[in-house]
Amino acid sequence: MPKIKHIAIATQDAGKTAAFYKDVFGLREIAQLESANANGYFLSDGNVNMAILNFQNDAVAGVQGKDYSGIHHIGFEVEDLEDVEKKLAANNSAPMDEVNKALGVGMGGPRHQNVEIKYTGPNGEMIDVSAHGWVGTNGFD
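^ thats the sequence. predicted structure below, dont judge the formating
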């Protein structure tokens, strides 16, 4: 069965974006990229590769174009939700109150299996943070 092993985030500030994911989630910098197509970083948690890319031309950026920043959302399963929430706040990441309210999460109510609370990423991307994970990430039983 295929497994998710790579996520790419387009950004206009690769250094700031990479620093956010390293500081908050402890991702390790694996490599830097400088080319005519893109500049950026490759980060990893040891299981999934995350490319942080500042595209240099529209051809390689695809339909969104080189000026696009972000993805829709990305999820991180964490061991200590309170600790990560403090790190998010220290890195100017705020809960996405309107989205959390619409989903009925993150407001002191019950936790759901596939979403606990959503925050903003450094490019406006949505970040799910969960201490429980998602269906299918801890096996299929």
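The CA atoms of residues 9 and 52 lie 5 Å apart.
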